[in-house]
Amino acid sequence: MEFDKCVFEERKKRFLSLFDRYFQVNDKVKKGKISEGDLTLEFWKVTLPKWFVQFSDSNINYSEDVWELDSWLYAMDNRPWNWWSYWVENNILYLELQVHGHPYTVETVIYVADVLNANKIDVLENYHF
Question: Can you tell me the distance from the alpha carbon of 15 to that of 87, in angstroms, rounded to the nearest whole number?
């Protein structure tokens, strides 16, 4: 995904921090440090970055393109891909996702990029069947 140079670093930081927090919580669940029953919508509202939670809460009634937070979380919990890697070149953030089969969707990733007003989105897929 490509951002204007003046805002690239801040947007990259926001984008990566959202997914990082989500994956950190899921790692804690896998290790038994957090119970799946604790993953309520209220838990996520205080755990995920405020900018993302506030965007969903404040814009849900104004656009059909805005996901409700619980819908985004459901899609992330049921995604057909794993985060493989990312890198930056010339103020472009590239993502590489490990896809588990076809059909698949990366709408959860594209949605976050759209929320951050990305100019361009490039998602590279690492097929692993």
Answer: 13
Residue entry with tokens 């993502």: 95
Q: Which residues contact 10 (CB under 8 A, 6 or more apart)?
A: none
C-alpha span between 25 and 35 (Å, rounded): 10
**Report field, pTM of the whole predicted structure over 0.70:** yes
SS3 3: coil
| Cβ within 8 Å of residue 112, ≥6 positions away | 15, 18, 19, 52
- CB-based contacts of 45: which residues, under 8 Å, 6+ apart? 53, 69
Within 10 angstroms of residue 69's Cβ, the number of other Cβ atoms is 18
> What's the average model confidence in pLDDT over 62-77?
82
pLDDT of residue 44 exceeding 90: yes
